[in-house]
Structure to design on (1015 residues):
């Protein structure tokens, strides 16, 4: 921090254009190497034995028969992993309880969900590994289980952890419970605010657990050298996180692990933790051979974090002219088998788009016998927004007010105080509403059985630690090395920002993603942070390179460096002494770098602050079939304040992808359990994500209110798009059917039931 | 005077209900030291699980961030990059 | 268990391999023939990431047994480009930014090629229904559909 960021309000040469991405050719030809594509000589196939029970005590595990099977070279169980103390990791990023991560990676004395890992093997073929699993005898003492969040909160619910006591309540409880934590936020006086209201809307909403749904299952290869140095290739959102977590879980030194990020086939937050990596390293250590572990799709659904199913209660009051006077919400989120749902984030984000003097949020984190939840794009926010934005829609109906006007009347702006504390700086929420109001979609006519919904959403976006290294080659080209896996096209943006600052041809700038041995620490890819924070590091590294280039030019010219300017990719002398000095290109200076002091490079590590929050407003048209309950999305427009779009096509892609995930969340996706707590739909056939024939084109509008915290005004964009769609779709269906839809997903049987119910009433 | 604005629950529990605290501090570490002097239990409770908003800008690790004479400071749950925040895995399973 | 010896043609080249009875064509392509461009997203034929052409017909390689390849002609993503020259569909995916993470991209390109090989002028609806067997979680399909329609238009122009 320190330098005032420059905001260029001008036509850029590269920023804002749409060049082909540097990794594109490999991806369209199938050459790009994803985690499961790696092969190593002598590689073994790994497999994981998983609990068939939702809740059980492990009385014993007998691996003796499996060990004897020819071709089986390693077996591990929970006994092979250190028991970690329950403490929240210090380190500055998201709070992590490594004991829980470790227990989740492999069970110790209890299994807490169907699919919980119990043992892992490595063998010379996948068939032998599978046969070995079948030979492992596990003696379970099956226990009663609980799935639903409200049921898990009841006093007589089966308790998952006999040492879990609710945090955040007074007096501190002494009875173990499934209620892991309570948190709350308060602003003003909601009782007074509701007393002033002319109209009040109060309703409970439910959402189901949904999975991030990345098409690439988790995959890892681990190799352990005889000197104890482990190398891991894996599909992950953060190679430094994998290194840290694996080291912690196996009681290894961080410096003895090198993690090489493969290309990643989708993450959305679901790959910000470890599942297979510690198992693979333990197996590699035991067998002395590299071990490859890849999840099946069923394992992905059963044993990797979905996001929480929720129960959301919202109450909002307003005066007759549409001014919100008070808002309250109570959120109950399922965390899965270990604490850690994003309930608090829901409480912080739900009312954020609105200027409210009086508001409260009460947030409950509850465990139950399901896989431990993991982050999913704007964790916690979509569910709270579903409640708040649906309530606002109902309020608009009661007031006879246009739903956009209702939001404009109360829109947060610079200086608005948030429920979670600080006041907003420059934000672009109102701009998204104005863009929505004037968009042709908003005034297009609707036909029979059609309805239009609108909803808004907010996400903080984060900054965090990032490193960047720019190396200038002898021919004046440059490598830009960063440490963030590229999920959405960010490496293209890194190259574009570097080229823009350096003033050279984009074709001469090659972005690379370094492993943990090649680039300094970078926090993982997530939180909509890479283009912002890592981009900032890239810009500062480019500035550092320019400072060196100016010094070298000064040496070549034998003048003072204060008399050198850098412009359009060249050094210019500003010294007015009658001598004619032709400008020196980067290539020229690079070519003589050896003579002027050595290789030229810029290396920067920062802890980026100043991430600008993002707001979005979505408009959705649906057509319902009252006979089948089917809902078709017939038109969709996503509008978002993106600060500054470095590569507009990839920013549009974030809006479109996030919106469609939200549509799936609203209409079809859910985890379905039987009465034994076993997942009934662990596959893409019955876990129904949107396909191409379900959808129209997703129109996007990029509003640009620059974020003063970034040299180009970038705001994170990746997470906001999934926040509005749940309510946008539900509001559209509610308007089409004339019935308030307060339970997701609005699958055909549910809509039909609601329609039939209304018909009878 | 830098102003610390606490969430009401923290205030109720650790400062006898006083949600607005005024302190003299040039940077965040000095502020934290002064707060620890006055309300040691508060600082212990906030602990490591906190992001800090200084004049509206959110920091995850602001130890030497300078403060203006009229800076406003809020403590917030950490917002993990793509990861769950507070009640993001701070459940106390002991042992 | 003795392995089966299979002779087949992959991307216009004669190929032989050994495989076990239960190995799928996808297993064989990835593990025996080092053609890792076809991806396993689900193993049950629901996501299309393993799309290949079997005698010109679009199939999921995870639903075909390795032994069934005997005597047939298979085209994978690796066979779509002609040497160093990208197929118009591949080029259009790049120009229209129709990929984000890229894991589903090989499947979509093979599937799109199968469509345009038999219907050079599809409507948007026809493209969407043809590609309904290919899942993408990143893009929301918008830019993919545009890329396929644009590629079709370019290919019609050049024909």
């Amino acid at each position: 921090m320190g330098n005032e960021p420059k905001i260029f309000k001008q036509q850029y040469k590269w920023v804002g254009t749409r060049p082909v991405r540097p990794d594109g050719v490999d991806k369209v030809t199938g050459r790009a190497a994803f985690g499961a594509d790696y092969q190593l000589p002598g590689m073994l196939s790994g497999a994981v034995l998983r609990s068939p029970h939702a809740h059980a005590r492990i009385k014993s595990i007998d691996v003796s028969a499996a060990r004897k099977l020819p071709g089986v070279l390693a077996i591990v169980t929970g006994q092979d992993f250190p028991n970690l103390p329950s403490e929240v990791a210090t380190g500055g990023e998201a709070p992590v309880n490594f004991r829980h991560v470790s227990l989740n990676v492999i069970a110790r004395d209890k299994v807490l969900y169907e699919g919980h890992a119990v043992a892992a093997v490595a063998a010379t073929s996948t068939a032998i590994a599978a046969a070995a699993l079948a030979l492992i005898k596990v003696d379970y003492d099956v226990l009663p289980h609980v799935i639903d969040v409200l049921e898990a909160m009841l006093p007589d619910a089966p308790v998952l952890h006999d040492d879990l006591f609710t945090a955040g309540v007074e007096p501190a409880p002494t009875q173990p419970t499934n209620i892991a934590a309570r948190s709350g936020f308060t602003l003003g006086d909601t009782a007074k605010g509701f007393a002033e209201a002319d109209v009040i809307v109060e309703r409970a909403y439910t959402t189901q657990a949904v999975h991030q749904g990345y098409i690439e299952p988790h995959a890892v290869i681990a190799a352990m050298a005889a000197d104890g140095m482990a190398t891991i290739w894996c599909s992950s959102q953060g190679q430094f996180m994998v290194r840290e977590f694996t080291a912690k879980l196996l009681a290894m030194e961080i410096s003895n692990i090198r993690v090489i990020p493969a290309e990643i086939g989708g993450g959305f937050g679901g790959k910000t933790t470890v599942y297979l990596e510690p198992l693979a390293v333990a197996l590699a250590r035991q067998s002395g051979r590299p071990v490859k572990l890849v999840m099946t799709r069923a394992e992905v659904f059963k044993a990797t974090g979905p996001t929480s199913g929720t129960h959301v209660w919202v109450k909002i009051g307003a005066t007759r002219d549409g001014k919100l006077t008070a808002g309250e919400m109570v959120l109950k989120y399922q965390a899965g088998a270990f604490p850690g749902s994003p309930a608090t984030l829901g409480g912080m984000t739900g009312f954020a788009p609105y200027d409210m003097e009086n508001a409260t949020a009460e947030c409950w984190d509850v465990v139950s016998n399901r896989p431990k939840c993991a982050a999913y794009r704007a964790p916690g926010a979509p569910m709270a927004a579903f409640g708040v934005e649906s309530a606002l829609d109902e309020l608009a109906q009661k007031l006879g007010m246009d739903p956009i006007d209702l939001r404009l009347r109360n829109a947060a702006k610079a200086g608005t105080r948030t429920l979670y504390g600080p006041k907003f700086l420059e934000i672009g929420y109102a701009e998204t509403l104005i863009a929505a109001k004037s968009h042709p979609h908003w005034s297009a006519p609707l036909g029979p059985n059609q309805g239009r919904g609108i909803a808004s959403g907010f996400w903080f976006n984060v900054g965090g630690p990032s490193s960047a290294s720019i190396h200038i080659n002898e021919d004046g080209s440059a490598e830009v090395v960063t440490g963030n896996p590229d999920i959405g096209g960010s490496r293209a943006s890194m190259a574009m920002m570097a080229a823009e600052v350096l003033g050279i041809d984009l074709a001469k700038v090659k972005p690379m993603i370094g492993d943990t041995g090649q680039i300094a620490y970078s926090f993982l890819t997530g939180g909509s942070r890479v283009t912002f924070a890592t981009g900032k590091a890239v810009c500062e590294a480019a500035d550092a390179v320019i400072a060196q280039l100016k010094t070298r030019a000064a040496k070549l010219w034998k003048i003072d460096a204060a008399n050198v300017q850098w412009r359009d990719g060249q050094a210019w002398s500003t010294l007015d002494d009658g001598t004619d000095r032709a400008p020196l290109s980067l290539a020229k200076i690079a070519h003589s770098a050896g003579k002027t002091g050595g290789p030229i490079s810029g290396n920067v590590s920062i802890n980026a602050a100043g991430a600008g929050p993002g707001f979005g407003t979505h408009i959705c048209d649906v057509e319902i079939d009252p006979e089948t309950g089917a809902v078709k999305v017939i038109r969709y427009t996503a509008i978002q304040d993106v600060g500054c779009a470095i590569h507009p096509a990839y920013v549009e892609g974030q809006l479109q992808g996030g919106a469609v995930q939200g549509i799936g969340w609203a209409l079809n996706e859910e985890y379905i359990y039987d009465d034994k707590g076993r997942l009934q739909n662990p596959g893409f056939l019955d876990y129904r994500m949107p396909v191409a024939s379900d959808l129209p084109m997703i129109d996007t509008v990029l509003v640009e209110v620059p974020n003063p915290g970034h040299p180009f005004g970038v705001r994170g964009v990746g997470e906001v798009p999934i926040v509005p769609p749940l309510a946008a779709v539900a509001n559209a269906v509610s308007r089409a059917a004339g019935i308030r839809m307060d339970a997701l997903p609005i699958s055909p049987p549910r809509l039909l039931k609601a329609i039939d119910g209304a018909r009878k009433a | 005077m830098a102003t610390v604005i606490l969430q009401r629950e923290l205030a109720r529990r650790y400062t006898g209900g006083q949600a607005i605290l005024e302190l003299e501090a040039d940077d965040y570490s000095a502020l934290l030291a002064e707060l620890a002097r006055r309300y040691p239990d508060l600082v212990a409770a906030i602990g490591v699980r906190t992001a800090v908003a200084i004049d509206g800008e959110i920091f995850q690790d602001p130890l030497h961030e300078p403060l203006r004479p009229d800076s406003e400071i809020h403590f917030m749950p950490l917002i993990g990059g793509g990861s769950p925040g507070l009640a993001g895995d701070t459940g106390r399973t002991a042992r | 268990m003795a392995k089966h010896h299979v002779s087949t043609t992959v991307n216009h080249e004669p190929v032989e391999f050994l495989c076990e009875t239960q190995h799928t064509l996808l297993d064989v392509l990835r593990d025996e023939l080092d053609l890792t461009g076809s991806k396993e997203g689900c193993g049950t034929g629901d996501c299309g990431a393993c799309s290949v052409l079997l005698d010109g017909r679009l199939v999921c390689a995870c639903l075909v047994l390795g032994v069934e390849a005997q005597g047939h002609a298979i085209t994978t993503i690796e066979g779509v480009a002609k040497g160093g020259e990208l197929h118009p569909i591949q080029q259009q995916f790049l120009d229209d930014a129709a990929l984000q993470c890229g894991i589903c991209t090989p499947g979509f390109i093979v599937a799109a090629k199968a469509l345009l090989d038999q219907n050079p002028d599809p409507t948007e609806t026809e493209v969407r229904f043809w590609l309904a067997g290919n899942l993408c979680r990143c893009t929301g399909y918008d830019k993919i559909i545009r890329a396929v329609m644009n590629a079709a238009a370019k290919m019609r122009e050049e024909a």
Summary: The two ends of chain A are 63 Å apart (CA to CA). The mean pLDDT of chain A is 95. The CA atoms of residues 258 and 517 of chain A lie 6 Å apart.
